[in-house]
Amino acid sequence: MSGGDTPCWQEPVRKGPVRTVLVAAVALVDADGRVLLAQRPPGKSMAGLWEFPGGKVDAGETPEAALVRELKEELGIDTAESCLAPIAFASHTYETFHLLMPLYAARVWKGTPTPLEGQQLAWVKPVRMGDYPMPPADIPLIPILRDLL
Ligand SMILES: Nc1nc2c([nH]c(=O)n2[C@@H]2O[C@H](COP(=O)(O)OP(=O)(O)OP(=O)(O)O)[C@@H](O)[C@H]2O)c(=O)[nH]1
User: Fold this and answer.
1) Number of domains, the chain
2) Ligand 1 close to Cβ of residue 69 (< 6 A)
3) Residue 79, in any domain of the structure
4) What ipTM does the predicted assembly reach?
5) Is residue 103 in contact with ligand 1, taking CB distance under 6 Å?
6) What does the similarity note say (predicted)?
7) Which residue owns the Cα nearest ligand 1 atom 15?
8) CA-CA to 148 of 20 to 30 Å: which in 15, 22, 52, 140?
9) 12 by DSSP, 3-state: which?
Protein backbone atom coordinates (compact mmCIF):
# COMPACT_ATOMS: atom_id res chain seq x y z
CA MET A 1 0.00 0.00 0.00
CA SER A 2 1.32 3.47 -0.79
CA GLY A 3 0.09 6.15 1.56
CA GLY A 4 2.67 8.88 1.07
CA ASP A 5 0.25 11.26 -0.65
CA THR A 6 -2.60 10.87 1.80
CA PRO A 7 -3.68 13.98 3.73
CA CYS A 8 -2.98 12.40 7.14
CA TRP A 9 0.67 11.84 6.21
CA GLN A 10 2.01 14.91 8.00
CA GLU A 11 4.32 14.86 10.95
CA PRO A 12 3.32 17.49 13.52
CA VAL A 13 5.85 20.24 14.09
CA ARG A 14 7.33 19.60 17.56
CA LYS A 15 8.94 22.57 19.27
CA GLY A 16 10.12 20.58 22.27
CA PRO A 17 8.74 18.33 24.95
CA VAL A 18 5.14 19.00 25.86
CA ARG A 19 3.24 17.80 28.87
CA THR A 20 0.18 15.68 28.23
CA VAL A 21 -2.94 16.95 29.97
CA LEU A 22 -5.76 14.52 30.62
CA VAL A 23 -9.20 16.08 30.21
CA ALA A 24 -12.46 14.12 30.44
CA ALA A 25 -15.44 15.27 28.35
CA VAL A 26 -18.97 14.07 27.79
CA ALA A 27 -21.62 14.25 25.10
CA LEU A 28 -24.85 14.57 27.06
CA VAL A 29 -27.50 13.30 24.67
CA ASP A 30 -31.16 14.24 25.07
CA ALA A 31 -34.26 12.34 23.92
CA ASP A 32 -34.11 14.08 20.51
CA GLY A 33 -30.51 13.00 19.91
CA ARG A 34 -29.16 16.49 20.57
CA VAL A 35 -25.82 16.99 22.31
CA LEU A 36 -25.09 19.67 24.89
CA LEU A 37 -22.32 22.10 23.96
CA ALA A 38 -20.98 24.81 26.26
CA GLN A 39 -19.37 28.01 25.02
CA ARG A 40 -16.08 28.95 26.67
CA PRO A 41 -16.62 32.27 28.44
CA PRO A 42 -14.62 35.47 27.78
CA GLY A 43 -11.26 35.58 29.54
CA LYS A 44 -10.54 31.87 29.15
CA SER A 45 -8.26 30.34 26.57
CA MET A 46 -10.15 29.67 23.34
CA ALA A 47 -13.00 31.92 24.53
CA GLY A 48 -16.10 31.75 22.35
CA LEU A 49 -15.49 28.21 21.12
CA TRP A 50 -18.05 25.52 21.84
CA GLU A 51 -16.92 22.41 23.69
CA PHE A 52 -18.16 19.32 25.45
CA PRO A 53 -18.70 19.72 29.18
CA GLY A 54 -15.87 18.34 31.27
CA GLY A 55 -12.46 19.35 32.50
CA LYS A 56 -9.04 18.36 33.71
CA VAL A 57 -8.61 15.10 35.58
CA ASP A 58 -6.97 15.78 38.96
CA ALA A 59 -4.05 13.72 40.23
CA GLY A 60 -5.31 10.46 41.69
CA GLU A 61 -8.73 10.88 40.06
CA THR A 62 -10.26 8.69 37.38
CA PRO A 63 -11.69 10.32 34.23
CA GLU A 64 -15.16 9.12 35.20
CA ALA A 65 -14.92 10.61 38.70
CA ALA A 66 -13.61 13.85 37.21
CA LEU A 67 -16.63 14.04 34.92
CA VAL A 68 -19.12 13.41 37.70
CA ARG A 69 -17.42 16.22 39.66
CA GLU A 70 -17.21 18.64 36.73
CA LEU A 71 -20.80 18.08 35.66
CA LYS A 72 -21.96 18.94 39.16
CA GLU A 73 -19.72 22.04 39.33
CA GLU A 74 -20.38 23.34 35.80
CA LEU A 75 -23.96 22.30 35.15
CA GLY A 76 -25.44 21.33 38.51
CA ILE A 77 -26.43 17.85 37.36
CA ASP A 78 -25.87 14.49 38.99
CA THR A 79 -24.42 11.67 36.92
CA ALA A 80 -23.40 8.12 37.75
CA GLU A 81 -20.10 6.73 36.54
CA SER A 82 -21.97 3.66 35.29
CA CYS A 83 -24.00 5.91 32.92
CA LEU A 84 -20.87 7.21 31.17
CA ALA A 85 -20.10 5.18 28.05
CA PRO A 86 -16.67 5.76 26.48
CA ILE A 87 -17.09 6.43 22.77
CA ALA A 88 -14.00 8.18 21.41
CA PHE A 89 -10.97 10.25 22.33
CA ALA A 90 -9.17 13.34 21.12
CA SER A 91 -5.37 13.55 21.02
CA HIS A 92 -4.16 16.95 19.93
CA THR A 93 -1.02 19.03 20.39
CA TYR A 94 -1.71 22.64 21.36
CA GLU A 95 0.95 25.32 21.63
CA THR A 96 1.76 24.63 25.28
CA PHE A 97 0.44 21.13 26.00
CA HIS A 98 -0.78 17.94 24.45
CA LEU A 99 -4.44 17.24 25.11
CA LEU A 100 -5.59 13.68 25.65
CA MET A 101 -9.35 13.73 26.04
CA PRO A 102 -11.54 10.65 26.42
CA LEU A 103 -15.09 11.42 25.28
CA TYR A 104 -18.02 9.69 26.94
CA ALA A 105 -21.71 9.68 26.05
CA ALA A 106 -24.48 9.87 28.64
CA ARG A 107 -28.22 9.76 28.15
CA VAL A 108 -29.15 9.58 31.83
CA TRP A 109 -28.57 12.20 34.51
CA LYS A 110 -30.49 13.91 37.29
CA GLY A 111 -31.39 17.59 37.17
CA THR A 112 -31.47 20.17 34.42
CA PRO A 113 -28.15 21.36 32.98
CA THR A 114 -27.75 24.95 34.16
CA PRO A 115 -24.87 27.27 33.23
CA LEU A 116 -23.27 27.76 36.65
CA GLU A 117 -19.99 29.23 35.35
CA GLY A 118 -21.31 31.95 33.04
CA GLN A 119 -21.14 29.76 29.96
CA GLN A 120 -23.74 29.67 27.16
CA LEU A 121 -25.32 26.27 26.56
CA ALA A 122 -26.78 24.86 23.34
CA TRP A 123 -28.43 21.55 22.49
CA VAL A 124 -27.15 20.69 19.04
CA LYS A 125 -27.85 17.86 16.59
CA PRO A 126 -24.54 16.28 15.55
CA VAL A 127 -25.30 17.21 11.91
CA ARG A 128 -25.41 20.90 12.96
CA MET A 129 -22.21 20.90 15.00
CA GLY A 130 -20.34 22.40 12.06
CA ASP A 131 -22.27 25.63 12.80
CA TYR A 132 -20.60 25.87 16.23
CA PRO A 133 -16.89 26.69 16.18
CA MET A 134 -15.12 24.12 18.33
CA PRO A 135 -11.51 23.72 19.55
CA PRO A 136 -9.27 22.03 16.98
CA ALA A 137 -9.00 18.90 19.14
CA ASP A 138 -12.75 18.40 18.91
CA ILE A 139 -13.13 18.56 15.13
CA PRO A 140 -12.38 14.82 14.49
CA LEU A 141 -14.99 13.91 17.10
CA ILE A 142 -17.88 15.47 15.16
CA PRO A 143 -18.18 12.78 12.42
CA ILE A 144 -17.83 10.07 15.08
CA LEU A 145 -20.81 11.50 16.95
CA ARG A 146 -22.74 11.85 13.71
CA ASP A 147 -22.22 8.15 13.01
CA LEU A 148 -22.90 6.98 16.54
CA LEU A 149 -25.95 8.98 17.59
N1 LIG B 1 -14.03 20.43 28.66
C2 LIG B 1 -13.47 20.45 27.46
N3 LIG B 1 -12.20 20.91 27.31
C4 LIG B 1 -11.71 20.90 26.06
C5 LIG B 1 -12.45 20.45 24.95
N6 LIG B 1 -11.69 20.56 23.84
C7 LIG B 1 -10.50 21.09 24.21
O8 LIG B 1 -9.56 21.36 23.49
N9 LIG B 1 -10.51 21.30 25.58
C10 LIG B 1 -9.41 21.89 26.34
O11 LIG B 1 -9.14 21.12 27.47
C12 LIG B 1 -8.80 21.96 28.57
C13 LIG B 1 -9.83 21.75 29.66
O14 LIG B 1 -9.51 22.48 30.72
P15 LIG B 1 -10.55 22.84 31.86
O16 LIG B 1 -11.93 22.97 31.28
O17 LIG B 1 -10.38 21.94 33.01
O18 LIG B 1 -10.06 24.18 32.40
P19 LIG B 1 -10.01 25.58 31.76
O20 LIG B 1 -11.07 25.77 30.75
O21 LIG B 1 -9.97 26.51 32.90
O22 LIG B 1 -8.62 25.47 31.03
P23 LIG B 1 -7.52 26.53 30.79
O24 LIG B 1 -6.45 26.13 31.75
O25 LIG B 1 -7.12 26.33 29.35
O26 LIG B 1 -8.13 27.89 31.06
C27 LIG B 1 -8.84 23.38 28.07
O28 LIG B 1 -7.56 23.79 27.64
C29 LIG B 1 -9.77 23.26 26.88
O30 LIG B 1 -9.57 24.24 25.92
C31 LIG B 1 -13.77 19.98 25.13
O32 LIG B 1 -14.50 19.58 24.21
N33 LIG B 1 -14.24 20.00 26.41
Assistant:
1) 1
2) no
3) yes
4) 0.94
5) no
6) Belongs to the Nudix hydrolase family.
7) 55
8) 22
9) coil
Q: Is 68 in the pocket of ligand 1 (CB under 6 A)?
A: no
Q: Tens of pLDDT along 75-111?
A: 999 999 999 999 999 999 999 999 999 999 999 999 9
For ligand 1, atom 16, the nearest C-alpha belongs to: 55
CATH number at residue 93: 3.90.79.10
Q: How confident is the model over 32-88, as pLDDT tens digits?
A: 999 999 999 999 889 999 999 999 999 999 999 999 999 999 999 999 999 999 999
User: Is 4 within a domain?
Assistant: no
CA distance 18 to 29: 33
Closest listed residue to residue 64, CA positions, set 91, 104, 37: 104
Asked whether residue 5 is assigned to any structural domain, the reply reads no
| CB contact at 8 A, 22 and 56 | yes
Q: Kindly give the distance from the C-alpha atom of residue 3 to the centroid of ligand 1, in angstroms, as a whole number.
A: 33
From the CA of 135, give the closest atom in ligand 1.
8
Domain holding 54, by residue range, is 28-148
